Amino acid sequence: MLRSMKDLENCAIAATDGVIGKEKDFLFDDLAWVIRYFVVETGSWLSSRQVLISPIAVQKPNWIEKILPVLISKEQVKNSPTIDNDKPVSRQNEASLLDYYGYPYYWVGEGFWGGGIYPYLLYRDHQHLPHTEAGARSAQLTHHNVKSEDNKKPIQIYAVAKRLLAIILMQMMVILVMSLDY
Fold it and tell me: Where are the transmembrane segments (predicted)?
């Protein structure tokens, strides 16, 4: 079942040994149109540090209690690489974070998440996806403040909508040209 990003707002992120914090924002890949990381506010146990949690670690959510379980420990989060969440995340930062957790690089393969469409498929038995830097030199994720209209904050995904519109128009042009009789 598809869920809105609004359903994830302020969800408690539960590690294997306790609650890490609350989801506060997302890092959104505006080329693939997927959430690449949850920005989690850790609260007092980690001096309110914001950390990035990959959807690769996410397990089945408890929508009633607004809990999102993840397969990482609080100790792992505590020692995770620090990343400035107010700037675009470079591939080097992503590689550092993914290496730290032992995850494969999602950009290696044909799908949104490596060889597949779901991030959790990368969690186990991922030896078939090698860690490489191929094609990863210049790509960056951009930080988008995606909020609902209820909060009266702007949705800053105009660039994504513009790109999708351009793709749709190109496909329509190809269909039109192919249908012309010469």
Answer: 160-180
Tokens matching residue 107: 């950009």
Question: Does the domain spanning 5-155 belong to CATH 1.20.1440.230?
Answer: no
**Cβ proximity of 89 and 106 under 8 Å:** no
Evaluate if pTM is beyond 0.90: no
Chain centre to alpha carbon of residue 147: 16
Domain boundaries, the chain: 5-155
Place of tokens 């994830």: 8
Amino acid making up residue 3 = R
Pull the structure tokens for residue 158: 């105009």
Residue 5 CA from chain centroid, whole number: 12
Closest CA relative to residue 40, chosen from 60, 4, 1, 69:
69
Average pLDDT along the chain: 76
Whether the CB-CB separation of 17 and 74 falls below 8 Å is answered with yes
Length, in residues, of the chain: 182
